[in-house]
């Protein structure tokens, strides 16, 4: 046995539900202690991948090892070493925060001598210690999320899976959840595997993978991914977006898109390009913004939609196809 | 605010063992009990039904039936049956909590834990049966009000029968809960099977001299074999004429053969074990 196996090792993992190939052969490795972000439009297969890594769904083919254990052959060992926060809540609203944690500790067979102290530390970390005696149904969405994180960590897992841990939370709560995640990584060396739809959050991950239609389309550090896009992003407000698209193509040979209600395109050396734009574009310009590439651009490049477009499209595949069709027709 | 690096207490999850499985069974059961105790409104609701049967129906029909019960109060007569109804409904509703656990997501927290699904279901069964039997015992405590003495043999025997029936019905409820996808289906099963089973069982009337079709249904109804020993037990401890006893507590017969109470009890137990076995098997197979 090697001294320290990677936290997660995935080889050609496939999951089919009948005709639907939810995950179509993904491979990647996550070293210990890393915060690994998993991005992708709705229905990309993120949750399905997590379910396989957590032994909740059996892979159709391929293999995965988590915490050094095989997800198919060593299910119990995997389960003993992972923590899991599902996309949908799994707390018992009728129990208090403390009772929820206690049930968890008992199920995981944690030594009774340490349960109390461990519970206090986790609840203090997520700032719910004062509320430990309240029924969870009186908690806000953010408080529940924090409690789920505390619970997922109660048994000191090697790998913590978080499926959209910050969805629907206010910026403050999101920031504190990130501070817990970092604290955890420092104190316990926990590996974090998380999915998110927030680009600013993906930015905070050590590495991210973008998944689309069941495949990983790109995987790297946020910096490397942004560098890969290269060119700057220009966002134009114009009097007539459609005319602007045509003019950009004819005069500059630039393929622009309308995303989030503004004309968007990429060029090398964006600042130098703006004066030319004003001189030569015969459509009235109401605003200009030039920015270095962001993860939004990376996402757009690799999946053909902005993350927010993907968000508003909803979870349905039909919607997703429609979005693609729309995105396509705009080019 | 957050814990400092130095003093974090780490937990360790031991390998699966008989001990950890036993702990899981206990935990799942304990949680259901906590929820039950915290839910006073529901406890009251579940108790209203037996009280209605006993005191409203029992008192209301008394004048009609006085002649044919040979001086026995109708409330006394239906008491054993009402004990059974209490337990049957309470056990079914307790088992339904599995459906709610699934619908509200908590079941995933249970099924992802490093314990076997068998332990989870056994915990649910233990919890549900305890809750149901407890409610049965509360109704049993009313015995004095309907002319049934608090004889130790009667009380112990009745508690035993209540436990047995609670176990079997909870197991049946869990089997239903494991199979179905939606909570509404559970209500449908209650309406289509459980309530008819209750009426057919003879909980509210003597099982001799029934019309043939009802007699046949009655003998096929598993609940019959729980109600009958309960009634025999109660009637053993009240003062009553031989003639009234023969009429009101005739015992269950198969083609003229009187089933001994011990056999009836054994049948209910075996049925409960079998149903629980199937439920565990089905539950373990779902992904
Ligand atoms: N149990 C299932 N049965 C059938 N199809 C499924 C099942 N689970 C997922 N799918 C399908 O697999 C695909 C991937 O779903 P998945 O939930 O993994 O997406 P996701 O990336 O997590 O999306 P989201 O961002 O909306 O959470 C979808 O097309 C979905 O309909
Ligand atoms: Mg998902």
Structure description:
The complex is a heterodimer of chains A (331) and B (287). With 331 residues, chain A is an alpha/beta fold. Chain A has helices spanning 46-53, 75-80, 97-107, 112-125, 141-153, 171-188, 199-202, 222-229, 241-252, 270-280, 295-303, 307-312, 317-330, and strands at 8-17, 20-30, 35-39, 61-66, 69-70, 82-85, 159-163, 191-195, 207-212, 215-220, 232-238, 257-259, 262-267, 285-291. Chain A is elongated and about 75 Å long. The N and C termini of chain A lie far apart (53 Å). Chain B is mostly helical. Chain B contains 11 helices and 2 strands. A two-stranded antiparallel sheet of chain B has the order 1-2. Chain B is elongated. The relative contact order of chain B is 0.13. Chain A binds chain B through residues 54-58, 76-77, 79-81, 84, 86, 88-95, 99, 103-111, 114-115, 117-118, 121, 124-125, 127, 135, 151, 154-156, 179-180, 183, 186-188, and chain B through 1-3, 5, 8-16, 19-20, 23-24, 26-28, 30-31, 34-35, 38-39, 104-115, 287. The complex binds adenosine-5'-triphosphate (ATP) and magnesium ion.
Write the layout of secondary structure elements.
The complex is a heterodimer of chains A (331) and B (287).
Chain A: E1 8-17, E2 20-30, E3 35-39, H1 46-53, E4 61-66, E5 69-70, H2 75-80, E6 82-85, H3 97-107, H4 112-125, H5 141-153, E7 159-163, H6 171-188, E8 191-195, H7 199-202, E9 207-212, E10 215-220, H8 222-229, E11 232-238, H9 241-252, E12 257-259, E13 262-267, H10 270-280, E14 285-291, H11 295-303, H12 307-312, H13 317-330
Parallel strand pairs in A: 3-8, 3-9, 6-7, 7-8
Antiparallel strand pairs in A: 1-2, 1-4, 4-5, 9-10, 11-13, 11-14, 12-13
Helix pairs in contact in A: 4-5, 8-11
Chain B: H1 18-38, H2 40-65, H3 74-103, H4 106-111, H5 117-140, H6 152-179, H7 183-200, H8 212-220, H9 224-235, H10 242-248, E1 253-254, E2 257-258, H11 261-285
Antiparallel strand pairs in B: 1-2
The structure holds adenosine-5'-triphosphate (ATP) and magnesium ion.
